Each structure stands twice: as structure tokens, then as C-alpha cells.
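Q: Could you fold this chain for me?
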Amino acid sequence: MEIADRIERFIGYFEGELSSIKSIPASSSSKKFKKALYVSVIDALARCVYPQYKQNQNRDRFVSFLKRFSDWREGYNISMPHLAQLLRINPDPTFEKLRKIIFETYNNSVVLRSQVVGIDTDPSYDEIKKNWPLQKEAIEGVKLEYLQHFNLLYAYRNSLIHELREPGYGVEFDEDESFPYYHSHTMIEGDIEDKSIQLVYPVNFFVRITTNCINNLKTYLAENNLDPYSYYRFGTYWISDLND
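A: Sure. Below is the predicted structure, expressed as C-alpha cells.
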């Protein structure tokens, strides 16, 4: 079989899987199940482009694949609420300048006044990096790039796959929404009112980026004359190293 035919067969398989995922009947848990399956598709596709990553490098492979094939430009942005919380839990004076900038932005956010906004309002990585202390690589083990949406989606993926739950308290308001957004959330305990900003990755967002990944991967494989099946191991044995 020619490489072009193998690419068509490979891509056709995943297009079929996407159709099957979309057809899952609506229920109280269907969105969660669909999202778990969509990130599984992304994981599977990433293997044929980045086979060099080992089992403990899943984040690197997942994020690298999204950056190259998802067409998700907002994925590079830093989630402002996550950054505000990271700076809040660490009082290190070296972050004082950045802390003042972020807290002012956070406290004036229209989201806290019950408006819904997209993640395109988040600051870019470069905007934050220029005020990040050079001598600090991370806070509490959290690197700045972990707050980029590409990496937050990986955290979301882990919660779905390993715990079968969606992180946070976000609510999907619009069934047709295909772009991530923030909304306010209020918790009241006695006389204490706590307002927070919740991040939402709606199910149609997963449909959009997974479809983009498949389409862009197909073009990439064809232009580079790559056989996708070469980067997977098939065989009788469940332990892949036992299959020649």
C-alpha cells in the first residue's frame, strides 16, 4: 500500500472515531465523556509526530502537538486568574511588581461583575515574562508556562482521564459555544461571600481543536511523505516491547 493510501486510511479511522464521539446521546455526563475521548484522540495522534517522547513526557508531547497542529492561538496566553492565585499563595517580595499589576487587573475584571469574557483577554506569555523575576524559574514548583492554556488543557486532560471529572466549577451556558471563556462564581458560607473567576473549556471547543489537529496532521503527513503507522507498535502482546 502506498504511503498516500496509508495516510488516508489512518486519518479516515480518526475521522470515524470523531463521528462516533459526536453521536454519544446527551446525558448529565455526556459532555464529560466526550471531552475525555477527544483528548484521547489528541494523545493518539501526537504519538505519530513525537514518538521520541517517553511515558513520563506526556505533557511535552501533548502540548507540542497542540502548538503545532491545533490552530489555537489563544493557547499561548497566560490564564490571568491562575496567575493571580499563584502570586497570592506565595508572598515572595521578588514578585511584588508583577503581583501589583496582576491584582489590579484581576480586581477590575469585568468577569467579577458577572460578564462572560473569552480567554483572548488574557495576557500573552511575553507580557508576563518581562515582569517575571529572572532568578525565579517557578513558584511552588509551578513554571510560568504551566499557566498557558496549552498546559492548562493538559491539566484538564489529566483530570478527565485519571479522575473522570472536570476541574473547577465552570458552567457551559451556550450549547454552541466553541471558544473557552471565563465567568464569575459566587459561594456563600454563612455571612462570607466568596467570588471567583471560573475557566470553561466547552465541549465544542474540543470538537474544534481535535478536528483542526486531524486536518492539519493529514496535510503534514502528506507533505512530508510520512507513514503514520510506522510510529506505533502493533502485535499480539499487550506489552509493546514484546512485539517486534
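A (continued): The chain has one domain: 3-242.
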